[in-house]
Amino acid sequence: MHEECGVFGVFGVENAFETVLTGLSSLQHRGQEGCGVAFTEASGTLSVSKGPGLVSRVFPEGKRHAPSCRCAIGHVRYGTSGGRETENIQPFLFSRHGCRYALAHNGNFVNAEELKGMLGKSGALFLSSSDSEIAGHMIAAEGPGRKGIDEGSVRRALNRIEGAFSLLVLTPDRLYACRDKNGFRPLSVGRLGKGFVVSSETCALRAAGAEFERDVLPGEVIEIGEDGLRSSFYSLDRRNAMCAMEYIYFARPDSDIEGINVHAFREESGKILFEESPVRADLVTGVPDSGLSAAIGFSKASGIPLETALVKNGYVGRTFIQPTQSLREAGVRMKLSAVRSVVQGKSVVVLDDSIVRGTTSRQIARMLREAGATGIHMRITSPPLRHPCFYGIDISSDTELISSRMGAEEVRRCIEVDSLAFLSEEGLLRAGRRTDLCMACFNASYPTVLYSHDPENGKV
Ligand code: AMP
Questions:
Q1: Which atom belonging to ligand 1 lies closest to the Cα atom of 245?
Q2: Is 353 in the pocket of ligand 1 (CB under 6 A)?
Q3: For ligand 1, is residue 289 a contact (CB within 6 Å)?
Q4: 284 and 304 in contact (C-beta within 8 Å)?
Q5: What is the pLDDT of residue 117?
Q6: Is 333 found in the same domain as 198?
Q7: 47/110 same-domain check
Q8: Domain membership of residue 177 as a residue range
Q9: Whether residue 325 sits in one domain with residue 203
Q10: What's the gap in Å between 353 CA and the centre of ligand 1?
Q11: Which are the contacts of 90, defined by CB distance < 8 A and separation ≥ 6?
């Protein structure tokens, strides 16, 4: 399973259900396959409502049955290899000694197989193929005596899970917001009236009318109750290994991740890319959406005018996970198109966030040439993607990564452009004024042990 999802939680707020839906709509870019909300009913019991598709499809306005509740958590799912099965849609509900709790998770565990084997032996039944269900069982397994679950069970469970998780657990009277000890995925807390909200990205806090309070720290478990927030850490072994692809590609430009605005990060990476790999051309353009901020930076640094040479059809779904190459190519052409009046007779610098298989870049180059461009210079705001990610990004095997098979010159020929340059790892860190990021997909420096995923074990 490889998932890049979004979570949103609300505690102590009137219309919590509606507020979660507002939050999830602002996190929709993190997952479109399915979504759901778990909420505390007036009787104190937890229920869940979920289904496949966009938030607006699963919870259509007008037909929306919005239970009145003050606490709820929600999830948008981006699943690939696990398929679109409804059983993988979150939040998941669990019960321990009659006490229900719900869980929503973004990320991937690297010791999922090991934990699943262990839990299976002690009788746990799995209804989905998702890592997140493992976390729910782990919390139950660590529960105190013949009672429900508490903060200790959450901390003990998390301490045995290795990998990436930004995770919410809702009990009838508590909300736990937890981040893994490497801090791979973002998670922020906001204040809404006298209550609290927790979100994968800060853009959703604002949409819900909340004020940013602070980020959940790596390794932190924030317990939210009627008496306010309580912080503790499940591990002493903590570091800052935020996933670089969150800044490069996944997050919305109006989100701030660990205090750095994503748009500003991308604009700066465009500037640095010009310093590292300058080029002369008639115009600069960005591949919507994530290349747009970088194109602004490249244009400012180079003095080359910024133009809209590519437009995106916002109504087309994801092309990235189409099963065949020809479907992926057709998908890119449906999603993007070149503006002939802008590019005809011009040499163009194109800013994009990454090259995975090379499909998008090659299609863009062909489109621009068909529209009359005389030169195409591709500038990529990430280093070459060479290694699989085990922390929740949808790149599971290095054979599908063009840069793991070819050097930059060969990739340039393959995507049919006149020049190609990637941002350096140092440039990437400099763009965010950071000394630390997880860049394992560029340099194979994995912040965790990989368990059965370790190539030495022959499983990758
Ligand atoms: P490709 O066409 O296979 O080279 O993919 C490159 C495009 O996919 C880039 O323009 C990105 O916008 C997008 N992309 C990069 N990483 C991912 C990912 N993990 N999941 C989905 N799309 C991605």
A1: 16
A2: yes
A3: no
A4: yes
A5: 94
A6: no
A7: yes
A8: 5-239
A9: no
A10: 8
A11: 5, 36, 50, 75, 77, 103, 104, 105, 130, 132
Q: Which residues pair with 256 in a beta bridge?
A: 261
- Domain identity same for 160 and 22: yes
Q: Where residue 35 sits, what CATH number does that domain have?
A: 3.60.20.10
Report CA(178)–ligand 1 centroid distance (Å).
28
How much is the average pLDDT of 422-440?
97
Ligand 1 and 171: CB distance under 6 A: no
- Among 239, 269, 289, residue at a domain's last position: 239
- From 318, 320, 381, 393, give the residue whose CB has the most ligand 1 atoms within 8 Å, as the site to mutate: 320
Residue 193 CB-half CA count within 13 A: 12
Q: Has residue 90 been placed in a domain? A: yes
CA distances from 114 to 119, 326, 390, 393 (A): 9, 38, 15, 21
Looking at the fold, whether 222 and 273 belong to one and the same domain comes out as: no
Shared-domain flag, residues 222 and 274: no
DSSP 107-154: S-BSSHHHHHHHHHHTT---SSS-HHHHHHHHHHHT--TTS---HHHH
CATH code of the domain containing 431: 3.40.50.2020
Nearest atom within ligand 1 for CA of residue 400: 3
Q: Is 389 an annotated catalytic residue?
A: no
Pair 62, 205 in one domain:
yes
Q: Determine if ligand 1 sits within 6 Å of the CB of residue 436.
A: no
User: Is 248 part of any domain?
Assistant: no
pTM summary value = 0.95
- The answer to whether residue 383 sits within a structural domain is yes
Helices 112-121, 131-141: crossing angle, 10 deg rounding: 50
**Ligand 1 geometric centre to CA of 355 (Å):** 6
Q: Is 100 helix (H, G, I), strand (E, B) or coil?
A: strand
Q: Is the CB of 244 under 6 A from ligand 1?
A: no
The widest CA-to-CA distance across the chain, in whole angstroms, is: 75
One domain for residues 69 and 165: yes
pLDDT band at 460 (very low <50, low <70, confident <90, very high): very low
Ligand 1 pocket, mutate which of 245, 293, 360, 412 (most atoms under 8 A from CB): 360
pLDDT, tens digit, for every residue of 65-81?
788 899 999 999 987 54
Residue nearest to atom 21 of ligand 1 (CA): 320
Q: Is residue 288 within 6 Å of ligand 1 at its C-beta?
A: no
- From the CB of 385, is ligand 1 less than 6 Å away? no
Mutation probe of ligand 1 site: the residue of 287, 319, 356 with most atoms within 8 A of C-beta: 356
In a domain, 246, yes or no: no
283 has a pLDDT exceeding 90 = yes
How many domains would you assign to the chain?
Answer: 2
